[in-house]
Prior knowledge:
Rossmann fold, three-stranded antiparallel sheet
Amino acid sequence: MSQKVRVRFAPSPTGPLHVGGLRTALFNYLFAKKNKGVFILRIEDTDAKRKVDGAEEYILRALRWCGLSPDESIVNGGSHGPYRQSERNGYYKKHLDALIAKGCAYYAFDTEESLAGHREEHKKIGKTFIYNWHNRLKLVNSLALSSEETKKLLERKTPHVVRFKSPENKTIETVDIIRGVSKSESKLLDDKILYKSDGTPTYHLASVVDDHLMEISHVIRGEEWLPSLALHSLLYDAFGWEKPKFAHLPLILSPTGKGKLSKRSGEKAGVPVYPLEWSKENKIKGYKEEGILAEGLINFMAFLGWNPGTEKEMYTLEGLVEDFSLEKVSSASAQFDYERLLWFSHKHIQERSGADLMALLIDQGYGLEAFSEEKIQKTLGLVKERASTLVSLWSAGSYFFKAPEAYDEASRKKAVKENTKEILLALVGALEKADDFDSKPTKDFLEKFFEDLCKKNAAMKMRDIMLPLRLSLVGSLSGVEIGTIMSELGKEKIISRIHAFIKAC
Ligand code: GLU
C-alpha cells in the first residue's frame, strides 16, 4: 500500500444524507487535508432495491454546501475510478473468483425456504441457526457436494450465493485508532454472503475490494460498522492484502440522549437532521432552510466526538484541518444538541460582514435586490447580533426593508390605548412639519415631541408614544434602538407606516 493518505466517504444512496453521515464525511475530509492526502467520495449503490432516486445528487449537493469537496468522485473522476460501485462489478467478480479458487469462499445453493426451516428447527430447541463451520457440511454448498455436483448445479444456473469460509478456530485481533486493540473468536462468526444470487456483491466484499483497489490508507466510518471489522480483517487476510488502518467514529445520540440520532428521533425533538431540504416524500427542511450557516454546522459537527483538547471552540474549516487528529476523537457517544448548533451558527454570523450576509440572504431567496448594497450591509450589521440563523437575521432586520404586514397581537394589546390614535396623528403632524428631521438626531425630535405633548397632558408617558410607534414601524415590540430605525427609514416611510397602523387599529 502506498504511504500516501487516501480516505473515502462511502455513502449508500438510500435517502438524504443524515447528519451522522455528514460527520463521517467531515472527519474523512479533515484527516485527508491535515495529512496532505486525498479525500474520495465513493457511491455504494450495489443494493439496487434500496437505491432512492435523487439521493446521489443530494449527497453531492450537501457536501458542496458544506465545503467538503472530494478530490476523486463520480463528478471529478480520478485515477482509481469508477467511483460508483454499480459500475465495478467486474472487479468484485474477479476477486471473488480468486477467493473461491483459494478455498476461502464457496458456492451455497440452499433455498430461502430450507434456511428458514433450519432457523425454525433451531429455535424450537432454544438455539440460533448460524451458517458456519459448525454445520456447513450438512448444508447444500460446494464444500459439502462433490465438485461434479457443484459443476452441474452451476451449469444449470441453479440460484446460489457465495459465502465466505470463516475459519473455525482463530482469534482475530483488530486495531482501531480510536478504540485500541480488540479480540474476537472466529468460531462465533457466520459464513457471510459475499456475492448475492442476483449477481451483485454484498457490502462486505465490495467495500474490502474497493478499499484495497483504491489504495485506501485509513477507513474512517461510523461505529455501526465495528461489528463488521473482524470479518473485514479476515477478508484482507484471505486475499493476502495489507489492511488499511481503521477508525470507527462514536455514535451520535438523539437530543434527549436516549438512543441514536435518527430521522425519527430528530423529528420527535423538532430538530432537522438533514443538511438540505429533502422533498421526496413529505418536504423535510434541512439546516440550510432553517438558515443555519454551513460554517456553523461544520464547527458544531467537528465537536461531535472530537475536541482539540484546548478551550478553543470557534473554528473555520481551515482551522479544523490544522488542529484535527484522529487520536483526539473519543469513543464515547456524542449527544446531538440543537441549541449548541444554533450557538455556533450565531457565532459564525457575527464573524461575517454585512456584504457576506447580504449575499447569503439573497441566495436564500429574500428579496433584497431592490435596496442599495450600502443600506443592506449597514442594517444587517446593526441586527446581526440578534441572529443565530439567516431566518432570524431576516426577521430581526426585515422591517428596515419592508413595512410590517401584520402586528403582533400581544404587543398591540400592550401598546394601544384610548389616546393612541390621537398621539400617532400628532406625531405624523410633527414629522410633516419637521424640515430638519434628516439632519438632526432623531432623539432630539422625539424628546421635543414628548415635551409638547406633556404640555397638553401632564399624565403622558414616553412609552405611550414609543410602544405604538415601534409597533407601527416594526410590527412587534422588538428591534434595535428606535432612533436608529427612524433615521434609517426616513420621514416618508415612517409616516406611511404610522398611517397603515392607525388603519389596522
Ligand atoms: N455504505 C456504507 C454506509 O452507507 C459505508 C460503510 C463504510 O464506510 O465502510 O454506511
